[in-house]
Amino acid sequence: MNTIDVSTAEDIELRILATRARRNVLRMLDAGGSGHLGGAYSCIDIVTALYARVLRHDPANPGWAGRDRFLLSAGHKALAQYAVLALFDYFPAEVLDTYGAFGTVLPGHPDMKKLPGVEANTGALGHGTAIAAGMAMAARTSVESWRTFVLLGDGELAEGSNWEAFAMAAHHRLGNLTAIIDVNGLQISGEAERIMGMEPIAEKMRAFGWTVQEIDGHDHRQILDALGRARVETSAPTAVVAHTVKGEGLGRLAGTVGSHYWTPSREELGEAFIELDRRLVSLGRERVA
């Protein structure tokens, strides 16, 4: 059983990266004035771990044929992917300051024609898994070793197209496909279970024929262990059900519906920068201790 070992030092480094990514999100909100912070922050630890330790990718050659594919099906969480792509030098950090500007390469939802590292245009929810399953099937047909990862939100599961794609992937035993479901429990209108209850998600995925792992989506050790196991799975697609907190990383917003789409005042934004900067200082002390 393959796992990805994480030492204490490596865990601290990942937490530093994730905090820097959260700070990049604030930088974009500073430029654009508002954005989908809540979902970006709930999945950003996962996205950071993927790019840092899991995906085969090359920022200097984003179109490398042997790269693993990552799709952000929940396209409104694009701030998370943009923030991490900037950390890994897919584009200059200064580009973050164009978020929300006319003609920016960082639109509200990912655009593969505008930004290196984006594999598909997403935003209309429910399509990412189908695209990812098609990519996984293409890799198998071409006898290629690259793998496909797709990240969805729990609110997104109300779209029926997801379940058609889940059924297709299981039927074809696409062991090279991993779906990560960001279960933060909230969506723009309130609690996901009140609006369209989808629990028990893990049991439903197992019933569809997927291998399932449930994790704390903010624990890098659990994230990497689950994704390490998924990398060597060959008999069935893997679903990683990641339990997260919407807006995790900012005390005043964590776990609130209001974090879904945040329009901060200058004072609120300044306080958020201070909170993350203090965390970076604290993590830096842990690193040298």
What oligomeric state is this? single chain
Largest sheet: 5 strands, parallel
Query: Any idea what the shape is?
Result: globular
In the CATH scheme, the class would be Alpha Beta
The residue fraction in helices comes out at 40-55%
Q: How many angstroms does the end-to-end distance come to? A: 33 Å
Secondary-structure-based class equals: alpha/beta
Mean pLDDT: 96
State the strand order across the main sheet: 1-2-3-7-6
- How many separate structural domains? 1
CATH topology annotation: Rossmann fold
Unreliably modeled segments: none
Beta content? 5-15%
Keywords: Thiamine pyrophosphate
Pfam families: Transketolase_N
Family: Belongs to the transketolase family.
Cofactor: thiamine diphosphate
Question: Topology of this structure?
Answer:
Elements (H helix, E strand, L loop, with lengths): L7 H25 L4 H18 L14 E4 L5 H10 L40 H14 L6 E6 L6 H12 L5 E7 L2 E2 L2 E2 H5 L4 H7 L3 E6 L3 H12 L6 E6 L22 H23 L1
Parallel strand pairs: 1-2, 2-3, 3-7, 6-7
Antiparallel strand pairs: 4-5
Protein name: Transketolase
Organism: Microbacterium aquimaris
Keywords: Thiamine pyrophosphate
